[in-house]
Write a structure and sequence with these properties.
By secondary structure, the chain is mostly helical. The chain contains 9 helices and no strands. The chain has helices at about 1-25, 30-35, 40-50, 55-65, 85-95, 110-125, 130-140, 140-150, 165-185.
Length: about 200
């Protein structure tokens, strides 16, 4: 009886130690950074500060758009880290004074981030600072989002995101805003600037 009791006690101690180790790992930022890495962090942070965009929000968007793959290309032809369409990129390049732009430059991280971020900031401004509608427009197109707002289909907030006619855009918004909070939690102690997105 004593031997059995000691064995059970030993197994209980081992089990408790395993549970405590698992809990420690699950609450550790280093563990979650394995699943939420931040490639191109310096470049993203620099362009975000230059254009007054929350760097954590931009990181979440890049993760949703390309998974941080600089050579990504969608079936529709969107390219690079921020999945910018060549037509949008050509227009944006003219606005910001990039000389002799060609669409192959969208695979260059610095160029892609500058063009994509400038266009994102343009959408934020176009929707009066509402970053939720700006993000939706980045995914679904400015004209679609404006039509939803004009027709009263969507109020432009996360609270009624389920009223967005495009399921893909609903999922996109939820993914970006979720990952925004995660990136802010994981990396906020390392010095990037934060601001709260509007329209939530």
């Amino acid at each position: 009886m004593i031997v059995i009791s000691l064995r059970r006690l030993w197994l209980l101690i081992i089990g408790l130690a395993i549970v405590l180790c698992v809990l420690y790992v699950l609450q550790s930022k280093w563990f979650w950074k394995i699943f939420y890495p931040w490639p191109y962090r310096t470049e993203i942070t620099q362009v975000a500060k230059r254009l007054d965009i929350d760097p954590y929000l931009l990181a979440a968007l890049v993760r949703a758009e390309s998974g941080f793959k600089a050579n990504a290309m969608s079936a529709a032809g969107a390219r690079g880290l921020m999945q910018v369409m060549p037509e949008t990129a050509s227009w944006t390049a003219k606005q910001i004074g990039i000389q002799d732009f060609n669409e192959s430059q969208l695979y260059q991280p610095g160029v892609n981030l500058l063009i994509g971020s400038w266009y994102l900031a343009y959408l934020f401004k176009d929707f009066h600072g509402n970053q939720v509608t700006g993000l939706a427009a980045y995914n679904a197109g400015r004209g679609n989002v404006q039509a939803w707002l004009d027709d009263g289909l969507w109020k432009g907030t996360m609270a009624d995101a389920d009223r967005i006619p495009f399921p893909e855009t609903q999922l996109y918004l939820r993914a970006v805003m979720r990952d925004y909070e995660i990136y802010k939690y994981l990396y906020a102690d390392q010095g990037a600037k934060t601001s709260l997105p509007g329209g939530t």
